[in-house]
Amino acid sequence: MKKKISFVADFSSYVLKGGLKFYAWLGFLGIFVLGWAYGNYMQWTNGMIVTGLTDQVSWGLYLANFVFLVGVAAGAVTVVFPAYVYKHKALHEVTVLGEMLAIAAVVMCMLFVLNHMGRPDRLWHMMPIIGVYNWPGSMLAWDVIVLVGYLILNVTGGFYYLYKKYMQEPLNNKFYLPVIFIAIVWALSIHTVTAFLINTMPARPMWHHGMMPIRFITTAFAAGPALIIIVFTIIRNNTKLWIKDEAIDLLSQIVVWCLGIALFLTMSEIVTELYHPTEHSLGLQYLLFGHNGLTALVPWFWFSIVALIVTFILLLIPSIRKDHKKLPYICAVVFLGIWVEKGMGLMIPGSIPTPVGEFTEYYPTLIEIANCLGNWAIGFIVLTFLLKGAIGILLGEVRYASK
Amino acid sequence: MQANKQVFTSMNMKRIASASVFYALLLCACSTAMAEDTVCFESREGASKVTQKDIGEELKNVKCSDKTGGVLWWGDPYDGTQPMGEMPIEADYTHGEAVVKSRIDQLTLYPICGVACHNGTYPAPVEADAPPRQLMMHMDLVPDALDLQHGNGGIWCLDCHDAKTRNKLVDNAGNLVDFNQPQKLCGKCHGQVYRRWREGVHGKRIGEWATTGKKRWFVCTECHNPHDVQQGERKSGFAQLVPEPAPILPKGMKNADHERHSEH
Amino acid sequence: MTENEQSGVPDNEDSAAKAITRRGFVKKAGDLSVTSVLGTAALMTNSDEAEANSSWAEWFQGSYRLMSQEEKDEACTRLERRYSEEYGKDVTVDSTPAQEGVLFGYALNIQKCIGCRRCAKACVKENNQSRGDQEIEWIRVLKMEKGDFDASKMADGYPDSYGIQVGGNAYSAAGVVLEGEHYYEPEVVPEEDAFYMPMQCMQCEKPPCVKVCPVRTTFREPDGVVVVDYNWCIGCRMCIGACPYWARRFNWGEPKLPKEDMNPNTHYYGNRPRMKGVVEKCTFCMQRTRKGRYPACVEVCPVGARKFGNLLDPDSEIRNILATKKVFRLKAELNTYPKFFYYMD
Question: The pTM is what?
Answer without folding.
Answer: 0.88
